[in-house]
Amino acid sequence: MSRGEVLKRFAACLEHVKTFLGNKGLGYPELEDPSWLEKFYFMVDMTSYLNMLNKNLQGQGSTALHMLEEILAFERKMTVFARDVQNGTLSHFPSLREFKEANNHINCDYFHRAITAMQAAFEKRFSEFRKEKQTLSFPVAPLNSDPSLLNTSAFTGVSKPDLEIELANIADKVLWVNKFKSLSADLEEVVRQRATLAKEHKWSDMEKLPQPYKLIFATWNAIPDTYINMKRCAFGVLSIFGSTYLCEQVFSSMNIIKSKYRSRFTSETLQSCVKMKVTSYSADIGKICREMQTQKSH
Asked: What PANTHER family is this protein classified in (predicted)?
């Protein structure tokens, strides 16, 4: 993501950069080459879209389904991008459009091929996830799932025949059907509020909204163990790590915890500090203190 920001800022300061280099007697012919510059401006625009995708895939609590949906949406956007450059309108490439207006020509065929190749790479890389969309959507919409399309082989203790029976059994239970309907309504409301707050740039308020994965977990925890295979399947899907965000968060936390002032760290104390740093659990200190036996004087 930082590379994309560097590209954007370099493009904004390009004329100043060329002036600075000229004053220093340094020459970079590519900065005056229209063929190189049009590819540069294309990268500025395309990298900004990739950064947006990357940002949407980050964050704690994102489910594998959410990430797959973001990838599929980006693949559809690339179809729009390819058509845009092929027609030469460049509605979605503002930097490249400005360059075209100043130079009256760009190689649209080259950019169309580049986007098409990128789209093919996305389709190939995420083909396995695309096949499992029915399974990944199970925790959110189990009653709409086709049991024959669910891949439960990776989830310990899930019996496919028993799962089919449980799905058939729960389908007409009004109490549990309404439970999943309420979950859908709650998730929709969270997404709606996030969109409103993002539009108003109220980022701190967004952090106060309920986490979708917590709403999903709460719903499944309320389902009785009569439907144990459904619960195991749902929890199995929710346990899938969709990105390396949590690992990166742990490494960042370790760098903060370790310092030259802490010279007597053991593996045990470091592990405890990392747990305290990354956990979302909030201890009730008052309750813990009340349950502790006080030391009486002799």
From this structure: DUF4371 DOMAIN-CONTAINING PROTEIN, EPM2A-INTERACTING PROTEIN 1
